Amino acid sequence: KECGQHKPSLIVSPASIVYNWFNEFEKFAPGIKVFKYIGNERNKSFSYFDKYDVVLTTYGLLRNDIDSFEAYNFYYIVLDESQMIKNPGSKIYASVLKLNSDRKLLLTGTPIENTLLDLWTQLNFVNRDMLGSLKFFKDYFVKNIEKHDENVASQLKRIIKPFIFRREKQEVAKDLPPLTEQVRYCKMSEVQEKLYETEKSKVRNMIFESIEHETFQKSTINVLQALMRLRQLANHPQLVEGTHGSSGKFDEVLRMLPNIIHHHKVLIFSSFVRHLDLFKEHFKKEGLKFAYLVGSTSNREEVIKNFQDDDDCKLFLISIKAGGVGLNLTQADYVFILDPWWNPAVENQAVSRAHRIGQTNNVTVYRFISENTIEEKIQKLQQRKTMLVSNFVPDEQTIPFSQEEISFLVE
Description:
Helix content is 45%, strand content 15%. By secondary structure, the chain is α/β, with parallel strands linked by helices. The strands form two sheets. Strands 6-11-10-7-9-8 form a six-stranded parallel β-sheet, with helices on both faces. A five-stranded parallel β-sheet has the order 2-3-1-4-5. α6 (134-146) crosses α7 (150-160), α9 packs antiparallel against α17 (403-410) and α16 (374-392) packs antiparallel against α17 (403-410). The protein starts with 8 loop residues before the first strand and ends with a helix.
């Protein structure tokens, strides 16, 4: 820190990571005075911040107490998992723009989750107007790059390159054990397949009709809900209200688990809490010990500690949004991704809960895909998004799809 008046730095992160930051400071830098600005009994005067070197808080509390934060000048502002501010129309984005500090820093493993606009919001926070206004960025960079204009793409790369430092996991942790990944294609049950095909016909007709009548953009919510129903049916009919029947994927996961958990611990990720609940109900019936972490879980640290320390607890059910970042779960060496997410970086973050510093065993990842469903199409879209990230990250909720991509998903 430079000479002069003492100022604390502010680190903003998802709620699930605040305690990780605090514990890491205690472990590796015990001389740094750290304060957790969390809880209901918060003192919003902030003058006491002067006694600390680092203040930790969450995106939600920052948004709620922005009037107090805006009045305080920090040394550094660090946004961890900075993709949280990717929506330029969100309240959290408006809030972080009001913060004052001498320096700004972003930390993220997924700088681009959906489109190049994700990159604009984050870079606009650390270097205001470097990429022009949002309208200019859309009209000049996004539109031309979507038309495969290599000159514009190269121009954007040159502008952002000095401000992005990328280190892949293999560079940081060179001694990490091998990671093996496999895709398990699952045949749907007969009932499940009939339900899926019926729903797919309805969805296709609805989407193509909206395209034909040029109401596609106005139908964003309906389109997303329709795609959600297809994803749910591809997992298990019981995820859709009013439907019943068995699931080929569910049966395949249960077939594989007994041999694995005899000697290993398994992380089981899903986008759908109800999907995890179906497994939870089954594990309870079978008398299997398991851990469970979703957005509504209040005793996160206790749940994580029990899984890490209890040799008999072999299974950990985790929602990908609640537990895809910030967790150290190196006791597990198997990872099940029950359903593909739109962006592969989110899945890779989930895999990194096990494949990280401290892991001594080889890690095996299984991605479960229902055959002949939207899940196979999502895999192909993931490849395109991987190319987008690698192109614009050196060395390496608007609808997240174009009209053409939507048609591809349901064709």
